[in-house]
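not sure who needs this but someone in the group chat was asking about Homeobox domain-containing protein from Caenorhabditis remanei so here u go. i didnt clean anything up, its just raw.
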Amino acid sequence: ISYFVLFIEAENEMWEYLKTSTDVLHDYYHKFGVQWIHDNKNRLMNLTGNSITHIENVLRLYRNEDRATGQIIKAFSYTPEQRDGLLEAFNLNPSISPVEIGELSDKTGLTRSQITSWFSKQRKIQNGTVVKKKRRVRPAYFSIENILSDKFPEKKKKMKFI
């Protein structure tokens, strides 16, 4: 079974569950991820009877509550298979056509907006407009290196956590 088929099955299961939910937006946000998928706005409007503005405000409120409580909001990341497919298509043609976007969407399970955003960023990286960020690796407070140092208890105050 391909990634795309599994994705469609999971998405169908999600919408069947939401049809019987007593609080659609709460369940959508908390059970099915914090990633706002613009393609789902119309379906959420149909299920809730609310406007897009109201839906966006409610989802933003849930996200702000998570931030306030210190909950880590995981950013979206592409799977290695998706990244390989995107890179392969980009190497063939950096300016992707709408037809190619549809084919790539079927192949990878990504939305059209995810594909166009990825291509746009890759073109900027290739042109030197945007420099790809590298994560700085800092030693953890309880790393062997810190514990064995003479100033172990004092280092906690000085360390900045990422």
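also The chain is about 60% helix and 0% strand. if thats useful
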